[in-house]
Input
Amino acid sequence: MNGKIRIIGGQWRGRKLQVPDKQGLRPTPNRIRETLFNWLASELPGSSCLDLFAGSGALGIEAASRGAQHVVLVEQERAIVQSLKHQTQTFPNANNLEIVCADALKFLQQTPAKPFDIVFLDPPFAHNFQELCCNLLEQHGWLKPHAYIYIEAEHQLKTLKLPNASWQIVRQQTAGQVKFFLIMNYEL
Output
């Protein structure tokens, strides 16, 4: 383990998460998480969230800490999954967290038991999985009407191709090497 990140809000505020030393793993920085969760403040309580490419777990665990009813974290690296499970066992009232060891792209090719209110999509930048994941979310029914999709990408990204016109960027910013977007699926 090479570092720690801190949960910045909610019931677990101040708790630290170990960040495994894994190439390509880059937890969402505090500044970006704070902006994102300010954007989502009224949407989080009681929501269902899906954190794809969970890595450190920072986004999904932050959402659970701030009142999400159910959060599914999907991570393919077994060692990272075990680390997340071990760390969150010590969190009080952590029964709203579900940690799944799976390849995110294969996971999205299934039909979900229930669609989600909020999806966090922060894939490894080198792979450019954002467009593919958005299409899979749309095709397989992963989103509730008016769901929010948060996407992180490299700051050089010129355009973000979305599945159709019902997907609208409602907020976007750049911070350092990261461009981040909050999108709403307006489809009913």
About this structure: The mean pLDDT is 90.
